[in-house]
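ESCALATION

Customer reports they have been waiting on this structure for their group meeting. Please prioritize. Original submission:
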Amino acid sequence: MGMVFDQISGKLITGNQWSNYATGNLGTSVILYQGGQKQNGIKIEQLKLELAALDNKRLMRELELQLLAIFIQVLVNHDLWEAGKSQLKFSEQQLQQEKTLMDVGKRTLIDYSQAKAKYANDKLNVVTAKMHSIFL
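Update from on-call: job pushed to the front of the queue and completed.
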């Protein structure tokens, strides 16, 4: 019928009055291209993945180096233990020789005590080397 009630002004609008009072807003938002953000996101994730792979390789290399260092230390400690055992046998022979020479009167108690101290020191070195190889 051409009659409309204007809620803003509270009047009844008829005929040409509609064009005088009619107002409107039209708003749109259109994203034309969003592929750049997705491509950048993909590149960032690829870089993060490559970084994680490099960190993994670095950690593996560090572990390999630590394992190699421990292995070498074990070999060194074993060699020290073997050398200590040889030195202990030698000290024990010297101690027996000094005891015999002291018994026949060719050596003094001081000489024998020095040989005994050397034997005790070598025995301590063997025990220490053995403990180092156990705790590694």
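Sent to customer with the following note: The mean pLDDT is 85.
Escalation resolved.
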